[in-house]
Predict the 3D structure of the following.
Amino acid sequence: MTAPIAIPHGFHALERFNSPFLSSLGPLYVKEEGGAMAIAMRIEEGHLNTRGVAHGGMLVTLADSALGIVLATAQTPPEPFVTVNLGTDFIDVARAGDWVEARVEVQKMGARLAFASCQLWVGEKRILRASGIFARVSRAFGAEERPR
């Protein structure tokens, strides 16, 4: 039997924004403190690439998801956003067992678009930075409104 994964103090399971795709990453955790929100996860063997470090696509997925979650929850009630543009830079690596935290900063929330950035951290080591533009999704998003 494997030991339970140690979760840092203040984090709890993120369930509201789970989807089949995000569930494939493994459990995500959230910590809210002083109006800021961090989304985090533990790197597991299944997240590694052939070089034995966290796969870049998985890290970008974490950053993109964290940005969307923070933007959605900045609204009352929460409103969904979709990614319009996302730029990322890889700074360092994460390894199996590392606790990766996504820290998001919202630059601007407009009527239609939102601008935000995210940094992924392992302890005091920054491993990725991302910057994105997101579009607010109408609750009545019907077939006639879908982009062509």
About this structure: The helical segments are 20-23, 56-73. The chain has a mean pLDDT of 89.
